[in-house]
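ESCALATION

Customer reports they have been waiting on this structure for their group meeting. Please prioritize. Original submission:
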Amino acid sequence: MQQAIEILGSYWTLGVGADPLGDQRCLHDFRKRVEIAARAGFKGMGFWHADIQEILRTYSFQDMKRILNDHGIVHIEVEWLLDWFCTGARRGCVEQDSGAAAGSGREPGGKAHQDRRSRQRLRRHPEDDGGNLRFCADRQPNEASAVLIEMLPRQFSRVPSLDDVLAICRGAGASNGGIMLDNLHVQRTGTTPEDIVRKVGRKIPLGVEINDGSLATPVKFEDSVVNKRLLPGDGEFDIAAFLQALWSIDYDGPIGVEVLNEYMRKWSLETAATEAFSKTQRVATAAREQFLASRTK
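Update from on-call: job pushed to the front of the queue and completed.
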């Protein structure tokens, strides 16, 4: 296990001004965004499909790669593809989008964590969609580019459980097909740290994101997910237990921070980056120290 914790700032954390329910583009200059994220301490950044199209109006993939490399950004997260399980004409659209996302992951140089969230209906049995996840995984430039299906609550997903997404991943049989675990969604689906340790195992590729919130499920649930998330340490979630469960199954990748918050969207790039990094680092470092201490007893 690497000793230094590397932190990835998700698109919705660092893409100041982008609104998931409105204009999803971040209109700040790409180079400036990377410079500020790197200066704050981030080793990874997330990008959204609409954001990438906006960036490409000014920069090529080669430009993006050079800028990211020059600033030490080594982990790349690309979101997201809808209708990934469809066939026919819709499959053609997925293939086109998957190729573009693969280009994003290939050119900057890093993992392309592509969330496979969809508003459409999955097949009757989740394991039947393994072949469709494999279709997307096979279109990545190499096995280092992981394709991850994010476990989401039932309000956002037709596969709202760890068992469901595991069935899809195992049905895919792709060495680069795995799961994105966000502690908010772990909390809201009733998944425990023990479930992660017992069910996930060490062979499935993982992505990890943390944020904070209230233990009680909010009345306005969807609004709480897209507008009211908190930075790590500002809420009641047991983030340490979540991270320690992942480390116990040898997860050794970056810790992403994904905070969708309507007030943070009005912050400056500098404030968003420095606040997100410092609070995430503080929480993750304390959790790592506890974890390592428990291993030496």
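Sent to customer with the following note: Strands lie at 7-9, 44-48, 75-79, 114-115, 147-150, 177-182, 206-210, 255-257.
Escalation resolved.
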